[in-house]
Amino acid sequence: MNLEQLGSFVEVARLGNFTRAAERLHLAQPSLSRQIAALERDLGAELFLRTRTGSSLTAAGESLLPLARRMLADAESVRRELAEMAGLQRGRVRLGATPTLCISLVAEVLSAFHSAHPGIELHLSEHGSRRLLDELASGELDLALITTSDASATERLTVTPLLVEELVVISSAAEPPVTTRDRIHLRAVAALPQIVFGSSYDLRGETDAAFRSANLVPEVALEGAQMDAVLRFVERGLGVAIVPAMVLIDRPGLRSVRLEHPTLTRTISLARPADSAPTTAVEVMQRTIAATAAEFATRASATMRQADSH
């Protein structure tokens, strides 16, 4: 018994006619008949009742039909999986990420993934965490890198923490340091002119909450900027900003100092729909994200140690 015989059997059962089945399978009718006869010999049972008007299944044929369909479906699934694994030559990954992650972690993830699997179509959605969770739940995304958790979404989504990242105060490397110490108190930060993110940023909510908790009102030099603009404005000496340590990698125009009382952190997590199995391409993207996040965590720690030594 082989898959070709099972495919022929299913087609004859579906059409109820050897001639039409042979045409659909692009076989000569004698060849099709020999395949079915060989299958019947292997199984030791007659599968079709042949009449002048067509063919119908015997009891043995009725028993075999669902099994044959399942075996053919499994074989096709294996073919697809092996084709993807042998280089991921086709497929699509829809990834969502917050703006602060898009200029750091995500850029490295997509570069690494595309270099290894150029045939995979990539789509990126850049929004705040809550919007990304909604897009995941509605089936618009396969994966999302988020920085907040939503208890109401956990039943529909699988959320896996990747790393805990420290928030630091950055200033221009061309300007004098904001402190001579290796740490700066949040109260001292509040007195410095700050470049503040737009209200849609998760990071804005976290820093606002920290100042409120400490009964502090920060001095705002400029409000509403996006991450790229914030970093450029700080480099130009317009003010300081509180950002994830990760964005400092490969940015010599910025210097950083760690916070104390309190130390601020955020957890970066990978979310995906809980009720559907990921494709091979999505699974490979998940592994790429996890590996890149681990590498970034190491590089960010090295950057912070270097900043402490200065």
Primary descriptors:
Arc Repressor Mutant, subunit A, 8-stranded mixed sheet, 310 residues
Give an overview of the whole structure.
With 310 residues, the chain is an alpha/beta fold. Helices cover 46% and strands 24% of the residues. The chain contains eleven helices and twelve strands. Strands 3, 4, 5, 6, 7, 10, 11 and 12 form an eight-stranded mixed sheet that branches. The chain has a two-stranded antiparallel ribbon with strand order 1-2. It has a two-stranded parallel sheet with strand order 8-9. The chain is rod-shaped, with a radius of gyration of 30 Å.
Main sheet specs: 8 strands, mixed
- Give the CATH class of the largest domain: Alpha Beta
Query: Given the helix and strand composition, which structural class is it?
Result: alpha/beta
Estimate percent helicity.
Answer: 40-55%
CATH architecture label of the largest domain: 3-Layer(aba) Sandwich
- Strand coverage percent: 15-25%
Tell me the overall shape. Answer: rod-shaped
The parts where pLDDT drops under 50 for at least 5 residues are none
Return the domain count. Answer: 3
Predict the CATH topology of the largest domain. D-Maltodextrin-Binding Protein, domain 2
Summed up, the helix count is 11
Whole-number mean pLDDT:
87
The number of distinct β-strands equals 12
Termini, distance in Å? Answer: 73 Å
Spatial extent as radius of gyration: 30 Å
SSE string? HHHEEHEHHEHEEEHEHEHEEEH
